[in-house]
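Page 47, continued from p. 46.
Same chain as before, 98 aa.
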Amino acid sequence: MTELQKTNIKKKPSKGWKLVKIVVLVYCSAGIALYYLQGKLLFRPVPLPPDYQFKFNIPFKEVNIPLNSKDNLSLVQFFPQDSIRKGVVLYFHGNRII
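Result:
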């Protein structure tokens, strides 16, 4: 074979590269699917009636903040067992039904 003929011969990609491409494609597809479905997978909102009373075994206080005539923001404040307060955990969870 001449040098020109050797350069025109196309090499087939190895089976290892095909496997790597498939794994990367599946990984990216799963990541995209999880990104768009995370609301349905992580949070399953259930609307509570306006007169709902929370029941916990530890001390807590419920605070209701009216936003307008229709909507209300409910907060549940938990108190530490001892009198020393060490910090705050602020958690936002929307109750929007998707």
